[in-house]
Design goal:
By secondary structure, the protein is α+β, with helices and mostly antiparallel strands. The chain has helices spanning about 20-30, 90-105, 115-120, 135-145; strands spanning about 1-10, 15-20, 45, 50, 60, 110, 130-135.
Length: about 160
């Protein structure tokens, strides 16, 4: 997984997680990215210095590299005069559908084995990768006790409108 720092035309910055740079490029080309704050579809990569991980047993080392991101788009009018796009039920459902599509495109569905597989990945017993699936409240508590970061997502049906 790769994390990009993103910026919208209204100057909001936020993170986006993708399987790889090609997945990000495809979503951007298909105009499927939007600001997590205002919903604007004019999203660019912000300048950032990526973290480089040398290996499991070594601590993370941050190395500055040549920036690969483009500078954020500057709003054409002063920010004080621009109104963010309204948050409507349709915009929210569209955003939730996009989240689902990105997760399905970039992660493996492990179904009801989610907690076991997440724990195996955390302990280095399974290859690191993005996964999604189902877990019970007690499984979630167990993962939190083990120090495994999980992110529950609202999962809308593909047919919701």
């Amino acid at each position: 997984m790769i994390c990009y720092q993103l910026c919208c035309a209204n100057g909001h910055t936020f993170e986006g997680w993708y399987r790889d740079s090609a997945a990000f490029a495809r979503l951007k080309q298909e105009n499927l990215l939007s600001c997590a704050i205002c919903g604007s579809s004019k999203v660019e990569q912000a300048l950032m210095a990526p973290a480089i991980v040398k290996g499991r047993s070594q601590p993370k080392k941050v190395e500055a590299t040549e920036p690969v991101a483009t500078p954020p788009h500057q709003p054409e009018a002063p920010a004080a005069t621009q109104q963010p796009e309204p948050v409507t039920p349709d915009n929210l459902m569209n955003a939730l559908r996009q989240i689902r599509a990105v997760v399905e495109e970039n992660c493996e569905n492990v179904g009801s084995n989610f907690a076991d597989e997440a724990l195996r990945i955390h302990h280095g017993e399974a290859p690191e990768r993005g996964i999604y699936g189902d877990m019970t409240a007690s499984e979630r508590e167990m993962l939190e006790d083990e120090g495994v970061d999980v992110l529950p997502l609202p999962w809308v049906r593909k047919t919701d409108s």
